[in-house]
Amino acid sequence: MKGSAKVIEVLNDVLTAEITAINQYFVHAKMCENWGYQLLYEDTEERAVEEMKHAEKLIERILYLEGIPIVTKIEKINIGSTVEAQVNNDHGLEKIAIQRFNSAIKLCNDESDAGSRELLEHILLDEEKHADDLEAYLQEIKDMGVQNFLVTQVHKKEKS
Ligand SMILES: [Fe+2]
Ligand SMILES: [Fe+2]
User: Fold this and answer.
1) What is the CATH number of the domain that holds 95?
2) Predicted TM-score of the model (pTM)
3) Structural domain count, the chain
4) Domain annotation covers residue 156
5) Residues in CB range of 13: below 8 A, 6 or more apart
6) CA-based nearest residue to 51, from 111, 130, 118
């Protein structure tokens, strides 16, 4: 089905943001794994995988609308050199994503593309959850201090 050029363009913009997030989160996840913060590693990697699923859905939708998915573009990646910086940078990315999704949803409404709107609304809820999870980390860091917070993220392997 031939889609609106404006919708295809906005879906590609959102796709670029997802690809950026995938890369930032994977690097952060691997840094946490390297530092031994197993729980943060697992959580951040899971978030990266969710962004990958978003990218997959967006590519499918762009193809359905007979557009060309652009997977070669990427925005600035902000790697944090500490856990606190990583959480702040990831939270910043999610906040921008939420704004972007909301304006993309508005555009889909203007272009009478309810299918694309519904997909974006679905993904938006995931991004809100991501932002919420990161806000909880920031609150914990603020309340208990970063050192105490990091203690909660080290998962010692059970001795067998
Ligand atoms: Fe996403
Ligand atoms: Fe996200």
Assistant:
1) 1.20.1260.10
2) 0.94
3) 1
4) no
5) 100, 104
6) 130
Per-block average pLDDT, block size 10, for the chain (160 residues)?
96 98 98 97 98 98 98 97 98 98 98 98 98 98 97 79
Decide: 28 and 50 in contact? Cβ < 8 Å. no
Within a domain: 31: yes
153 CA from centroid of ligand 2 (Å): 21
Count the residues in the chain.
160
Q: How many CA atoms lie less than 13 Å away from 110 in the CB half-sphere? A: 10
Say if 143 falls within a structural domain: yes
Taking the CA of 15 as reference, the closest ligand is 1
Q: Which of 46, 64, 87, 76 is closest to 1 using CA atoms?
A: 64
CA 92 / ligand 1 centre spacing (Å): 13
